[in-house]
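User: C-alpha cells for this complex, please. No commentary.
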Amino acid sequence: MSQAQASRPVVAGPVPPAGTGAPARPAPARRRRSPLRARLRRDWPLLVMVAPGALLLAVFHYLPALGNVVAFQDYNPYLGDGALQALAASPFVGLENFRELFADPAFWDAFRNTLAITAFQLVFFFPLPIALAILLNSLMSGRLRGFVQTVVYLPHFFSWVLVVTFFVQMLGGAGLLSQELRDAGLTPPQIMSNPDTFIVLVTAEAVWKDLGWGTIVFLAALAAVDPNLYEASAVDGAGRWRRLWHITLPGLRPVIVLLLILRLGDALSVGFEQFLLQRDAVGRQAAEVLDTFVYHHAIATGDYGFGAAAGLFKALVGLVLILAANRFAHVLGERGVYSRS
Amino acid sequence: MTTPAGPSADRRTFLSLLGLSAAAVAAGGSLAGCGDKATRSGTTQELDKLAEVLPEQRALTVNVPKPDIVGTRPVADGYTRFPAQLVDAIAEKPGAGGPAIRAMVPVWGPAPPAGASNAYLTAINAELGTPVEFSVQDGITYAEKLGAILGARDVPDLLCVPGWEVSKLARFGDAVRANFEDLTPYLQGAKVADYPMLGTFPAGAWRNACWNERLMAVPNPTDGPFPWALFHRKDLLTKAGLAVPASIDELFDVGKRATNADKGVWAFSDIFAMVQMFHKVPGSKDGWRLRADGTPEFKYETPEFRAAAEFMSRLYRAGLVHPDIVASKGADAQQLLKSGKIMFHQDGIGMWQLMQAEQQKVTPGFDVQPVPLFSATGGNPLAWGDDEPISYTFVKKGLGKARVEEILRVVDWCSAPFGTAEFDLREYGVQGRHHTRGADGPVKTELGFKEIQNQYFFISGRSPVVQPYPQTPQYVPQLLAYSNETVKNLEKDPWDGLKFEMPAKYKAGMVPTQDKITDIVRGRRPMSDLDVVVTEWRAAGGDEARQLLGSALADAGR
Amino acid sequence: MTTMPRRRHPSRPAWEEEPGAAAQAATGTVLTVVVLAVLVPLWVVLLTSVSSRESINAAGGLVVVPRELDFSAYRIIFSGGQITKALLVSTLVTVAGTALSLVVTVLAAYGLSRPGSLMHRGLLFYFLLTFLIHPGLVPHYLVVTGLGLKDSLWALILPTAVSVFNLVVVRAFFQNIPAELLDSARLDGAGEFRILWRIVLPLSKAVIAVVGLFYAVGYWNTWFNALLYIDDNEKFPIQRVLQSYILAGQAPQTSGTVGAALPPALAIKMAVVVVTVAPIALVYPFVQRHFTRGVIVGAIKG
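Assistant:
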C-alpha cells in the first residue's frame, strides 16, 4: 500500500490533496499561503469533528492536570480553607523538587533499570505479537484461528499477583520444575530470585500476560492488507517469504511504527505491581523502577510536589523520545504519529 | 465484630493481596505509629499537654456481667460464655430527630443492602432516633478513597479511619486539622460524663486519638496489644515427633527437621519480625530504645539486631523458608500453613481463631497455636506492643455544636459494651430475624450475615473484651493464657504517650534501608555490610530522628 | 520422510502453495505451546474456583488435579442479589460508553487525519500531550465531583471516554486508506461527514471492532472510578461488586456466632477471575468476526 501512496497523483484544483502521503514529500507551497478564511471554509467540518474529543479532554484531563503545578511547590494539600486554596497557599520553590530528584542516586538507579527493561522488552517482547499475528493470519482454518485467538488474549485480564503466582508455581523453588529436578537428583536453579536474570523473568511474565492481547491490533491491520497484492505477487512467482517481506510487513509497517513510537513515549513506565511483588526476591538493585521509586519516595511520604516533578520528568523524556522516534520514522519514509506540514 | 485483632490480622492479608507488604507501606510512617504529617523537620506531641484534653475514665453505672478470665492490661478481659441476661445501658434515644447522619465505613465482603431495604439498619436507626446512612467502602482499597476525599475535603459527617490506614496517609495530622471537628470541648475531663459509654474507654486509646494536641476522634480501643505472634501447626509438629521450640537453637533445629523439599514442605514463612523479638531487638516507635547514657538508638545499630539478621540469614541460607514466600510478596502464607506446606508462620493474633474455626471442620485434629515467647539470649523475653486503637471515628468540621452533640450521642449508643442490650442489637441484629439464640449464644441467620457488616462498629468503640467463641471453646482461655504470659514482658516505651511526626528525610530513607537489610538477610550482600548500611541510614535522616527523639525526652523532663 | 499427498484446504486460494511439512510442524508446535501456556493456567483457575477447602488444602493452593468439586464460591457470588443489578449497570455503562467513545474517537481521528488542515498540528499535539501528562488523583476528584457527577453513571463514562492511544490507532488506519478514494469523492462533491460515513467507516470495520473492544473492555472493567465516585450500592458496576467478594472468605470474624461456612477464599478469588473473564471471552468471537480479509477490495469494487 505504501507504493500505492507514493505513486498517488496529487490532485490539483479547489480540493486540496488529502495529505495522507509520505510526510517526507513537501507540502505544496500554495496551501500555506491560502488565506485563513478559505481554509476555515474548507476545514470547518474537520474542526467540528475534533471538538467533542477536545472538549472531553479539556474538562477531564487538562483541567485536573493543572494540578501538576505542585511540581514547583512545597505542596501541602491541607493548607488554607479548601482544596483549591491549598494550591494558592503552598509556597513556590522553583525547581527544588527537580533538584532533589536528580540529586538522588537511587533515582538514577531506577531510571537506568527502567530504560534497560524498556529496551530489552522492545527487542524481545515487541516483535512477538507481530509474529504471532502473522502466524495466526496464515492459518487457513477459520475455526482453529478463532479458537487460538480467543484463548491467547485472556491472560491480559489476570492480575499481576496471579501471573506471578503462576510463574512461582512453575519455576519457583517449590514449583513444578524444581520438584522434577529434585526427583531426578538435581539441584534446582534459582529462577525466581536471581537478580541477574530478573529482566528476562519480568519480560517472560509480561509476554505471557500480554502477547495475545498485543496481537489484536496487528490482526486488524493484517485484515486491511489487500489480498489482490498477494495474488499478484504469487503469480509473479514470489514465494511465501518474499510475500511476507514485500507485502505483509509493509502493510503492517505504519501500525508497527506507530505502536513503537507510542511505546517509546511510555518508555519510563514498565509496570508497578509486578515489580513491587518481586522486589524482595531479587533486591532493590534489580527491581527498582521509576514508578516504584516515586511511590516509595513521594506518594507514601506525602511529598506530592516531588511526585508531580517525577511525573513531569517522565512526560518530558517521553516527549523527547516520541519526537526523536517520529523524526527517525520520517527519515525512513514512515508517517509516524505526528507529521509536519 | 468485636475482635479487633481480626482486622489487624486481615490488614496483612490485604496488603499482601495488593502486593504491598507492611514494610512497603511503612514508608508512610508507621514509624510514628500515629498521626503523621510529612513535616520536613518532624514534631512531637507532648504527653503533659494532653493530660488536660483527655476524658476522665469512669466506670459504667449499669452492671455488665463479670468476665470469666481477667486480662492484665492492656490485655482485655475474656468471656467464655454469652451472658444469660442483657442489661439496658441507655434509656433515652440518642438522636434528636435530625437529618440522617452520613457515615463512611470499611467493609470486607459484599456491600450489605443500604437504607430501608436493610432490616438491620432500619432496626438500629429506629433505636437511634436519628438515622445513620452508610457509604460502605471496600476495606482493601479504603486508603485510596480516604486519600481522595481528605485531599478534596469532601468528608461525610462521620468518617471511620482504621488504625492501619493512618500510617498510609501522608500528612495525616494536617488532614485531620483541615477536615474534622475538634472534639476536645465536648469530651475533655468530666465532660465525657454526657457520653457514659465513651467514658469507659482506656486512656491509652484516647491518647492515640489526639492530633496536634487536641482530641480529634473517638477511638475504637484494641483488645490485643501485640503486633505479631509466631504460629505453628501443633498437630503436625506433634505427629512428626517435634517439640515446640523454646530457644533459638531449637527453632532452627525443629525448622531443619521439619523441612522436606522433596515432599514440598518447608518450615517457615518470613518470620523476621518474630526473630527480632526473640533476640530482644527494640520495638518502641518501630525500633527505638535508650542507651545507658540516655541517648536514643535505633534497632539497626544494636547487636541484638545484628544477631537477629544473622539468624534470619541462616534460615534463608539453609533453605528453610518456603520458596513461594521467597519469590513473591503475593504468596499466600496462610494457605501454606493450612495446607501444612509450612510449619511456622508469623501473623497477627487475629489469624488464630479464624483459621482454627475454619480448618477444624476440614482437617481432623487441626491445631494452630502460637509459640510461647522466648529469649534467644537469656533473661526474660521481650514483647513488642502498643495500645493503638483499631480505628478512629472523626466528625466533620463545622456541623455546629448541637449537631456534633447529637452525633456523639449516637456514637455513644453504638459504643455500649459487651453484655448490654445495645451491644447485642448492634452485633447480632434482631432476634428471630438476624439471629437465633441457643444454649451457646446467638447464631446468625443468612439474613444476619448479609445485612450486618459491622457498620455501626466502625463508627464507634467499646470497652474491649474478648468474646466467647462457641465454635472454638478452647480459644478464649488459650488466648488469655498466651496474652497474660506475654504481657509480662511487654517492652517499656521510653516515649510512652509521646506522638511523633518523624522528619521527612527519615521517612523517605526507611524503605531504601529496609531494602539493603533484605539484601543482607537474603545473602545478596555480606553481613559485614551492615555497618555501611547503618552509616548510610544515619546520614539519610537517622541522626535527625535520633535528635528529635532525644530532645523530646528532655523537653518532657524524663 | 516421504511427502504424503495432502488434501488442499478448501479456503486456500488457488495461487497459494501448500506449506511444507516442516513449516506446518513448526506452526503447529508454536501454536500448541502458546495455547497450552494459556489453557493450563485457565484450567487451574477454573478448577480452583470450584474446589472444596479439602482440595485446596491438599494442593497447597491452586488446584491442578480435580478432586472434590464445590460450587459454593459461585453460589456465594450469585446469591448476594447484587450481581444481577451490577451486570445491568455494567452493561449499560459498557454499551453507552463504548458507543460514545467510538463516536468521539472516530470523529476526532478523522478530523485529525489530514495533515495540512486548519490547526492540524496544534490539535494533534493537544491530543498527544494527554498521553504524556497525567492529572493527579485529588484534582481529578475535584473536577468530577465539582460537575455534580458523584453517584452518577456518567462519572464512569465521561472521564475515560477518549483514549488517545485508541484515537491515534484509528487515525493511522484512516490514513492508510488510499487517498484516491477520498479525493474522488470530494471531487464528486461529498462533504467530510459523508465521506467518513460512506467510505472511511465501511473500510475500517476491523479497527473499529478492535478499538470498540478496547473501550468496551475498559468500561466493563471500570472499577477505580466507581470506587471514587459511586457510593450508592445500587449503582455499583460489576467489578466493584466482584472485588468486594475477594475478601468475603476472610472477612473479620463476626464475634463468635456460628453461621454458614464460607467457601475457601482462594476459590472465591478464582471465581471472581472467571466471572470477570467469561463475558469478555464470550463477546470476543463476535468482534473477531470483523477481522476478515478483503474488506478494501469489496469496497473498491463496490
